[in-house]
């Protein structure tokens, strides 16, 4: 799973799920990842082997996502803003799930991972994205916990 960054705070249990039969393409979620800057929310990613390729940082107004190969291009080189109408955490999570489900193969190919795109398993993708959505809900109100602990700056 993606490397945790020193100085960031992670609340809730991480989840890691296969998106291909051989387990080389996987998805993960950190239910609450709080950056050093004090913003936070769920982070969802797609990895190929040990490389993080796609990442959605569902952090409300400062939320954004990464395409083109997160590990390959770095955070700045892969940074993409959410569409203007996707500013709340729930909408960002839904956007991430839709991107993985509807455009996962295309996004992997565009990032230079065509072999991984070819082995995405539609049933595993559907199952994994449903489990990610359910897992985030099952973790409870981590945002309120983070606010109470003064981990988030709002």
Write the layout of secondary structure elements.
Layout lengths: L8 E3 L3 E4 L6 E10 L5 E9 L2 E7 L6 E3 L3 H9 E3 L7 H22 L3 H6 L2 H17 L3 H7 L6
Antiparallel strand pairs: 1-3, 2-3, 3-4, 4-5, 5-6, 6-7
Describe this structure in words.
With 154 residues, the chain is an alpha+beta fold. It has one domain (9-145). 40% of the residues lie in helices and 25% in strands. It is built from five helices and seven strands. It has helices at 70-78, 89-110, 114-119, 122-138, 142-148; strands at 9-11, 15-18, 25-34, 40-48, 51-57, 64-66, 79-81. A hairpin with a 6-residue loop joins strand 5 and strand 6. Helix 2 packs antiparallel against helix 4. It starts with 8 loop residues before the first strand and ends in a 6-residue tail after the last helix.
Strand/helix succession: EEEEEEHEHHHH
Number of domains: 1
State the helical fraction.
25-40%
* Cα separation of the termini: 28 Å
Strand fraction band?
25-35%
Determine the structural class based on helices, strands and strand pairing. Answer: alpha+beta
Instruction: Give the beta-strand count.
Output: 7
């Amino acid at each position: 799973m993606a490397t945790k960054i020193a100085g960031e705070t992670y609340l809730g249990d991480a989840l890691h799920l296969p998106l291909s039969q051989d387990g080389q393409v996987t998805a993960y979620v950190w239910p609450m990842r709080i950056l050093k800057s004090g913003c936070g929310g769920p982070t969802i990613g797609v990895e190929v082997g040990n490389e993080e390729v796609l990442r959605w940082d569902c952090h409300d107004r400062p939320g954004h996502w990464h395409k083109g190969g997160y590990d390959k291009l770095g955070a700045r080189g892969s940074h993409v803003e959410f569409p203007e109408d996707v500013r709340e955490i729930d909408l960002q999570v839904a956007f991430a799930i839709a991107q993985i489900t509807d455009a996962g193969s295309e996004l992997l190919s565009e990032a230079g991972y065509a072999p991984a795109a070819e082995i995405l398993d539609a049933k595993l993708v559907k199952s994994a994205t449903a489990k990610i959505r359910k897992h985030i809900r099952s973790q409870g109100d981590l945002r309120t916990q983070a606010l109470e602990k003064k981990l988030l700056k709002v």
